[in-house]
Amino acid sequence: MHSPKPMTKEEARRALDRARHAVVMKFPFIGEISLRMGLVPTHDSKNPTSTTDGAKVFIDTEFMSKLRKEELSFVIGHEVWHNVLLHPARKQTRDTKLFDLACDMEVNWLLKQNNKEHVFDFPYGTPMPPREVQGESCEVIYDWLLQNCKMGNQDSSQPSGSGWTCPDSSDVEHSLRSEPKKDKTADGQFDTHRYTDGSGQEEDDGQGNSDSDFNPKIAKSFCEDMREIAISQLQKCALMQGTMPIGIESFVKKLEKPEVPWQEHLAQFITQIHTGKLEWTPPSRRHLYRDLYLQSHREKKIKIALAIDTSGSTYTILPNFFAELESLMKSFDAYEVTRIDCDAAVEKVVVYDHDSAPFSKDSGEGISWNGGGGTSFVPPFEYVKEKNLDIDALVYLTDGFGDAPEKQPSYPVLWVLPKDGNRDFCRWGKKVFMQNAKCGW
Fold this sequence. Notes:
Largest sheet: 6 strands, mixed
Helix content: 25-40%
Strand order of the largest sheet: 10-9-8-11-12-13
Number of strands: 13
Order of helices and strands: HHEEEHHHHEEHHHEEEHEEHEEE
Strand content: 5-15%
Shape: elongated
């Protein structure tokens, strides 16, 4: 097939203006926000298609030459939605490739729901969320993908890089004029994503094209700036009948009062423990003659007991929780995690440390899941006491339906529960609810 001639930047700017005008006229919410963002045509090997940094949308001129106006309108709407939904700041410790796909699915579903004026033409292979999570947030979609997608041809136990293959969706939109793809994998996304933690950015090998106009940088005030812009535009849409985006209601509440993700609560709990593990070293004798008493911190091994409720209710949330906890533990020089599987009694104990294989590899596979009631949270605490384990804290993953010890132990305890878990089972310890997770089984 003959490849179209690459656009000049001037031609690209005119094409972007026409495509954006169509979005403004037929989808004012996204169109008006796009007017507050720069649309920058570039030709840089680090950006083969399109990307955004929250303030600008960078689109490759060669990529643009293959798109019709309706498809280019889709690209603009797609990138703007990423920013409105604050995707660059929501990845946290999740796998980059799989979270990329989850974000694209959330955005594409919103574009589909708001395409009654047919302003957008979806390129072939545009990923849509599976029916089970249509209309859900990228975090919920990510959890579903983590449970149902497979990683192939990789030795790493962590889901990273390419190779993710996910269940096909009959709801994939495509343009009849576009060439079909041979397969549908996470690598089928057309744009690249950039995150506030610096991930998602392609390295420059110095061999490809370089364009000085391609200079993405996510501002520290990105979330606050975009939240203000989105709320302002939503208020305008509320005064204009028929212009409020479909499917945006739940996100509006989060814009006005954002929730603190459970991952941040977990990170704060672990970090506070770690802070208590730092100690001062004696002053360096090399500088005493100069009357300088130079000290430094020395980090001691952090030791945590991890109790798993094996009644079956935590089966679906365990992989995501394991991945999050392991990512946190890897940030320390030395750690030890004692996993205690328990239903009515302790069933299995496994110890992991910084030198062993990643413990997220065992998420679910090495655990005997039970059911039928009779859950007790007491045995793990008794095990710690009987074995005289020297731990800094205990983290308990459970649905909260069981008997807890009456007396609080001397060490900190964090209860991690699904959002529909029991909130009243224990009066001590800190409780964190995984807002995007429900009791399984």
